UniProtKB/TrEMBL annotation:
Protein name, UniProt field: Atlastin isoform X1
InterPro entries: G_GB1_RHD3_dom, Guanylate-bd_C_sf, Guanylate-bd_N, P-loop_NTPase
Superkingdom per UniProt: Eukaryota
Coiled-coil zones: none
Record-linked Gene3D superfamilies: AHSP (1.20.58.420), P-loop containing nucleotide triphosphate hydrolases (3.40.50.300)
Domain GB1/RHD3-type G: 1-143
One annotated GO molecular function: GTPase activity
Gene source species: Hyalella azteca
Pfam families with a match to the protein in the record: GBP
Bilayer-crossing regions: 285-303, 309-330
Record keywords: GTP-binding, Hydrolase, Membrane, Nucleotide-binding, Transmembrane, Transmembrane helix
């Protein structure tokens, strides 16, 4: 009942009072669950299946006869015990649909022959006729009922988590209390809502930077991450109906969702950074720049006769040449990846602590000023060209006499 959209309650001969009372644990859970999640029904469909129905002369086999028997059984009268009244009332509240089907006896060959192996020829034709009616009502694709939890359809992934959760509840001999069922339902609902929120975030970020999408600036990535993270959390809170009144469970799984999203963001950042052409070329460019700097310094110190310092510069130049060659080999062959990572770290250190400050101080501003000046000149040229064109049009326009 906890993990199924349709519960087939298989009974023999008739629906007895004890059969209804056996559902009391679940109806008690259903009532409390409805209060916790504000759902109209805790369960979806209950199908009473009465086999070996013995009164076809009073009530015919099939759905119509079964519904008549069910309505009579579930009718509440003043003479009934209060507990019997409650279970009938709760059944109506907990299940969205309640149906009943009366099945005939399958035939005496089925129960009398010890070697009965399921052959249709040994089963009464009337039983087979009603079986052909009942099975499509339950299993035909157009009649299948999607499993819902708290009014939300669940996926196969969520159903697996529900099985694991409720196995913890029913592993003991004694039936659990309704409050225990609600507690575990809140956990299962929170887990399902968490997975849905994480999936929403992943799909959004995949659309943004996944696959063949171009490189995105870090600032934009962080802004999109925060926006999609808030959307995922909002989706989690909206879909987590069973956990709404259990704040402790809600907050626990919300924290877990945020942590998992942050981990996913790190992976998306790495995926995005891999598309950064300039970052991919940073290591060879940095090593080559350092090599050229030491080459120039070596020549300069040699001119002034500072040969020991020039020799040190030559040695440093050789080190960077070896590093550049090794880096190219690692990238080409895929071998010695740890060496490649170490060379990348050295290049990053040189870039961030030496070359980037020099670039920012002496080159970035002049380049920016040059770009702005070029844009300004282009705009002025466009304006002047437009003015000249308008003037020529006025000169060439014929005058009316």
């Amino acid at each position: 009942m906890m993990v199924s959209s349709v519960l087939v309650y298989n009974l023999m001969n008739n629906i007895q009072e004890d059969d209804l009372m056996n559902l009391q644990t679940f109806t008690s859970y259903g009532i409390q669950a409805q209060e916790d999640c504000d759902s109209s029904h805790a369960f979806q469909r209950l199908q009473f299946l009465v086999r070996d129905w013995g009164f076809p002369y009073e009530t015919p086999y099939g759905h119509k006869g079964g519904q008549g028997v069910l309505d009579e059984i579930l009718q509440i009268t003043p003479k009934q015990h209060p507990a019997h009244q409650d279970v009938r009332r709760d059944l109506r509240k907990c299940f969205r649909d309640i149906n009943c089907y009366l099945m005939p006896h399958p035939g005496f060959k089925v129960i009398q022959y010890a070697n009965f192996d399921g052959r249709l020829a040994d089963i009464e034709e009337e039983f087979l006729t009603h079986l052909r009616i009942l099975v499509p009502q339950l299993l035909a694709p157009e009649n299948l009922v999607k499993k819902e939890f708290g009014g939300q359809p669940i996926k196969a992934r969520d159903l697996f988590n529900f099985f694991k959760t409720f196995m913890e509840v029913f592993k003991d001999i004694d039936l659990p209390e309704p409050t225990t069922l609600v507690e575990f339902a809140a956990r299962a609902s929170s887990q399902a809502a968490l997975e849905a929120g994480k999936e929403l975030y992943t799909e959004a970020m995949d659309t943004l930077v996944g696959g063949d999408r171009p490189f995105l600036k870090t600032v934009q990535m962080e802004a999109e991450h925060e926006k999609e993270k808030q959307r995922a959390v909002a989706s989690y809170l909206e879909k987590n109906k069973y956990g709404r009144k259990n704040q402790r469970v809600v907050e626990k799984y919300q924290t877990q969702l945020e942590e998992e999203i942050d981990k996913l963001f790190v992976k998306f950042m790495e995926q995005n950074e891999a598309k950064n052409v300039f970052k991919a070329a940073r290591t060879p460019a940095t090593l080559f720049t350092a090599l050229m700097i030491f080459y120039l310094l070596s020549g300069l110190f040699g001119v002034f006769g500072l040969y020991p310092i020039a020799s040190i510069c030559n040695m440093c130049m050789g080190v960077f040449l070896v590093m550049l060659t090794l880096w190219a080999y690692v990238r080409y062959s895929g071998e010695f990846r740890d060496v490649g990572i170490y060379i990348d770290e050295v290049a990053t250190f040189l870039w961030e602590n030496l070359l980037q400050p020099i670039y920012s101080t002496y080159m970035e501003k002049p380049l920016k000023d040059a770009a702005e000046q070029a844009a300004h000149q282009a705009m002025n040229s466009a304006i002047n060209s437009g003015v000249k064109t308008a003037a020529n049009n006025n000169v060439n326009k014929p005058h009316k006499s």
